[in-house]
Amino acid sequence: MTIKTFYLVGQDKNQYHQEIHLDPYHDFEALQFAVAEQYNIIQAAGIGLQDLKGIDLPDLDAVLDCDEQIGVTVDGQPIRDPTGPEGLPLVGSYYEVFPDHLVSEFPIVGPRKNFAGLPNKYSSMSTLKAMWLRAE
């Protein structure tokens, strides 16, 4: 029974590691699909594997020969958290999203305008911290 430990490159290895049994997989594409399923990555074809030194593991034999943890990349890039407003302690990014909460004559219009502008400023996927909650 062959078990390998995988981790997300760019994230904490101790927090984002997964052990995957390699015996059921007979080709690299099946292994990519299994890793994608384990980490909830949508497109399995973009998954790349590498050793701790950053050397690519292009096929199943290279993965089986690797005696260390195996890093997972997507489209050759490390995994990173979504961007978003930094925020302040305790209140998070509330005042960046809702800066005019006290002076707005139309409280619904101001927040919607600011909230709708987040994808233009950061990306289509953003992280938002409001009070002690975090939304992605």
Q: How would you summarize what this structure contains?
A:
By secondary structure, this protein is of the alpha+beta class.
Helix content: 25-40%
Terminal Cα span: 38 Å
Enumerate the strands of the largest sheet in spatial order, edge to edge or round the barrel. 2-1-4-3
Major sheet, described briefly? 4 strands, mixed
What's the count of strands?
Answer: 6
User: Could you tell me the strand content as a percent range?
Assistant: 15-25%
The secondary structure category is alpha+beta
Per DSSP, the total helix count is 5
The overall average pLDDT, rounded, is 77
Low-pLDDT segments:
102-111
Radius of gyration, in angstroms, nearest whole number: 20 Å
Give the topology string: H per helix, E per strand. Answer: EEHEHEHHHEE
Principal-axes geometry comes out as elongated
What are the defining features of this structure?
6 strands; two-stranded antiparallel ribbon; alpha+beta; single chain; four-stranded mixed β-sheet; 25% helix; 136 residues
Write the layout of secondary structure elements.
Blueprint: E1 3-8, E2 17-21, H1 28-39, E3 47-50, H2 60-65, E4 70-74, H3 94-97, H4 109-116, H5 118-121, E5 128-130, E6 133-135
